[in-house]
Amino acid sequence: MQPSPRTIRALGWSWLVIGLSALPVTLYATALGEASAARGLGTSALIGIFAGGACLAATLGLDRRVRAPAALRLLVLGWITGPLVAAPSFGTVSDGWIEAIFEAVSALTTTGATLTEPDAMPRSLVVWRSMLQWLGGLATLVLAVTVLAGLDDRRAGLRRSSLLTIDSGDLFSNLGRALVRLGGVYTGLTVIGFVVLAFAGASGFEAFNLALSGISTGGYVPRGGELTEWLPMPAIAVLAVLCVLGAGNMAVLYEHVSRGRVTRRFGDVRSMLIVSVVCGAMLALVASPAAGIAGFFDALFAVTTSGYSVSPADAGLPVIALLMLALAGGAAVSTSGGIKMARLRLLVRRAGRDILLLVQPSAAGGSRFAGRAVNEAALVSVWAYALAYPVVLALGALALGPFAADMGLAWSVAGAALTNAGPIAGQAYGEVGTGGLIIASILMILGRIEILPLAAVLFLLFSGD
Prior knowledge:
Blueprint: H1 5-32, H2 35-58, H3 68-86, H4 97-108, H5 123-151, H6 175-199, H7 204-215, H8 227-230, H9 233-247, H10 250-259, H11 267-286, H12 289-303, H13 319-328, H14 341-359, E1 367-369, E2 372-374, H15 376-400, H16 407-418, H17 433-448, H18 454-460
Antiparallel strand pairs: 1-2
Helix pairs in contact: 1-2, 1-3, 1-5, 3-4, 3-5, 4-5, 4-17, 5-6, 5-7, 6-7, 6-9, 6-10, 7-9, 11-12, 12-13, 14-15, 15-16, 15-17, 16-17
InterPro entries: Cat_transpt (IPR003445)
Membrane topology: Multi-pass membrane protein
Subcellular location: Cell membrane
């Protein structure tokens, strides 16, 4: 493996950001008298700052154009090494290193799975956990419009936007610009979410953590128990809006905010809302209007892959339905996991056109998406991805089988981990043992790097540029 200097430099920046972010939380833990948490946070801060700083110093002045192999290395190494930097902070609430790494992977991949109830976690670590989700969501957005958009350039171009001009000869050329542009919108929405959540009845602590968790579709909650027990319904509605914004196309939002440009590319959000309304209506018909409202929110939180739950335990939509919704996922340039709604819409549209051609052979052929023609090669890549995702899910469930009490539990954990919608599996993570946690962590990372580059990544990790 021969990582390029700029790959090392980009990794150094990511470690440095994690380390610097841990510093104020370390001071917060110290002020609260949470000594063990402060030591863990301080360790993460020191590792991130020194390791990141050393990488930046060692690669200062080294420049080299970054093509697909190096970009893929950054994609996978970033999601693997970032949690290792953050893991020491969770040592005080974990039984071992595997559990601590699991918590860090879950946080940075915005999965939201946890082994520790937030009420049993030091207050500073609850804040840190939410901050890691927010940082992971921002990293997801930046990588989507730079690395993944560059790799996707000759395919369906689902991440193509007017946000950046992708230089396929140097995929790192726009990292900084993407960070500034998307980071501004992302931060602004978080601040607005915090203020509105507080006005809607959430306490300052809850509003802060939920704003970070909601916009990143992380699904982590700052308190235990049912969501409706401690969060007013208006605040739950605000949280749902935040999740939809996070799962929507952030590049389109940037165009609205920065340029006042109105586009019609809200098909993904419209699809998420339609699916949620249908689920809520079905529950209202078979149960009650109140169950229908709760079902609507559950479906919306599932399809955005945040995974919050509004229905009482053992009520509402079955887990398999929530996992299917999470499998669909949100928009291409979003913090959500899953296959992505745009790919499914493209396939459904193509299937409808093929059926029409069977009935009316003289009808016009071809496929268009977001105003662009989509060629057959692009459609094949979308089909391959849509088929590969369930295959990886099945393999993950089979791998988890020996560690779970039954295959139903294994499927739940594998599905929630791969779609980065961890809360859907509830407390099941504590029942799969250390081996199951390792597999679940791998699935979370696979979900975040969108699985299809996996084969290329494994090859490129051990080859030259």
